[in-house]
Amino acid sequence: MSAPRVWRADLHDAETVAELLVEFRDHIGRDWPSDNAFHFGVERVLERGEAEFLLAAPGGGAQAAAVCQLRFGFNLWRAGSECVLEDLYVRPTARRGGLGAALVQAALDRARERGCRWIELDTYEDNAPAIALYERFGFRFGRSGGKRDVVLARSLDDDA
Fold it and tell me: Is the N or C terminus of the chain more exposed, i.e. has fewer CB atoms within 10 Å?
């Protein structure tokens, strides 16, 4: 079996990226955003350069079966650029074939290429396979001043 192939998605890959993200949405038990919103959003992100998507396929010319999103920005507390790795998804039929690991490695490489000093991600606390994968690449649960960092979020859609 040949090594997975990973590439940075461009506008020609937008439909594939959106389809994989819709599968991810369904996999985690959500029904929103709509399929159309994903397709529109991926094209917008790619056109505006707001983020990057990486795609991965098993070797041998196979179609993409995995995706992740990378967002970049400047972090004042780190005095440098950072990368947020989001939405890493591998189709169930392609799991255990090295695609997730290939995407994580490519994300680390891309973050370094962009001069990032930090990369972070979040995942569900009960997603043991994902946590094991990320820990294999040196990701650790955050600590600041001896206290565990937690991710909190809220919607702003209800503020109108």
Answer: C
